[in-house]
Design a protein that fits this description.
The chain has 8 helices and 9 strands. The protein is of the alpha/beta class and 260 residues long. Helix 5 runs parallel beside helix 8.
């Protein structure tokens, strides 16, 4: 298994990152579900909980679980900076040949992690889950379904790429690819996923999109509020403008030839 990049530190085959913000009530159960899937697989793995400035002692709970869940690590930023920010921080500290992440509420069935990893093993550079794939099984609120579908249709139209779902909360990457892409991302919050996938496609990387099982999480309110939605829309139009004008206002560094 994983015949590529065997020189990676400690030969960790897969890193699963769980980004969290104020998840004290659910993080233990989520960790238990993800750990059981990985522990019953053939992968040498690590789990990183990436805490984006929680104030509900989520970090203390995770630290207390390190003896219960082997290969568990905590990456924390003291102040909330955004989903993209904390994911980048955790990715840069990861050790896996395959780097994956999944939202802590496990609205997406975590079994998808294994299927995404197999896509990477089979030659894809990036593998993403899709709530809007024709074969996905959905059982969450109509409002969230319509909002998600609306955003993705607008993104697909503006960016002119054939993707069902930019924002699905489970993705996996070949290590070298995600580390290269991080150099060219500017968004640190919810639009981070969209920018990442869009620039990956412009780079010509091989991407697989798979169906997922989505369940309702009625006990947890969405952390995406109206301000977040407006900011996602603003950043989406900036991506569109960048792609049309070639002015590249989003890049921290000059993009390499793959992104021209």
């Amino acid at each position: 298994m994983l015949g590529f990049e065997n020189h990676i530190q400690n030969e960790v085959q897969i890193t699963v990152i769980i980004p969290i913000f104020q998840e004290a009530k659910i993080i233990k159960n989520s960790l238990n579900s993800i750990y059981n899937i990985l522990d019953n697989s053939d992968y040498r793995f690590e789990i990183i909980v990436a805490d984006d400035g929680s104030t509900d002692h989520s970090d203390r709970i995770v630290s207390s679980l390190k003896t219960e869940f082997r290969n568990l690590r905590l990456v924390r930023h003291p102040v909330n900076m955004g989903r993209g920010f904390i994911l980048e921080k955790a990715i840069k500290q990861s050790r896996g040949n395959i780097i994956s992440y999944i939202d802590a509420d496990l609205q997406i069935c975590p079994e998808a992690i294994m299927r995404l990893a197999r896509c990477i093993e089979n030659g894809f550079d990036i593998a993403i889950g899709s709530k809007h794939h024709p074969q996905s099984e959905l059982s969450y609120s109509r409002w969230r379904r319509v909002a998600s579908l609306g955003y993705n249709k607008i993104a697909k139209f503006l960016l002119n790429v054939d993707i069902y779902d930019f924002q699905c909360g489970v993705k996996a990457f070949r290590r070298t690819i995600i580390l290269e892409l991080l150099k060219h991302l500017t968004c640190t919050r919810w639009s981070w996923d969209t920018e990442l996938i869009f620039k990956a496609l412009l780079s010509g990387y091989r991407l697989a999109e798979i169906p997922v099982i989505v369940k309702s999480t009625l006990d947890k309110k969405s952390s995406v509020h109206i301000i977040s939605i407006l900011n996602m829309g603003r950043h989406l139009f900036r991506l569109w403008f960048w792609s049309k004008t070639k002015i590249k206002p989003l890049t921290k560094n000059k993009l390499g030839s793959k992104l021209q």
